[in-house]
Amino acid sequence: MKAEYYIEKLNLLAHPEGGYYAENYRSEESIEKSALPNYYASARTFGTSIYFLLTPNSVSNFHRLNSDEIWHFHDGGAARIHMLSPEGKLVSKTIGKDLEKGESFQVVIPKHHWFAAEIIQGDFILVGCTVSPGFEFEDFELADRSTLASAYPDHKTLIERFTKA
């Protein structure tokens, strides 16, 4: 299979962070705002899921969410996910199918961590991304290069690779 096949068959659209996506699940039930931590501006569904596809020409730029996100490998090569904790610790994990090379079928990105991703093997990677409580764009923050580099000067080179000028 090729990236173009999945983009067409799954009706994937360009994502603001880079790559392509389509929401494929949104819980019908929700959690009231009063039952959620204060960093949520409104009620949230129990969970959401999307298909997300990256190619060598499309990276996922640094962004963060208010909820944990789990990436699930579906098809293609491998991708490296770079995560910066609020304290500035950098952790990089590889999602893919080659367990002998240390790749994982799933990677968990904790809430409030800045993260970015890139293809490191193959022509594309197709993953599923599950968010709980469910994703809303009001929780999505795309990194500003200068602000993030000022907050994490030890990781300036990586930040410059995965932010827009």
Automatic annotation (TrEMBL):
CDD domains: cupin_YML079wp (cd06121). Residues 5-143 form the DUF985 domain. It comes from the Bacteria. Pfam families: Cupin_5. This is DUF985 domain-containing protein. It comes from Roseivirga seohaensis subsp. aquiponti.
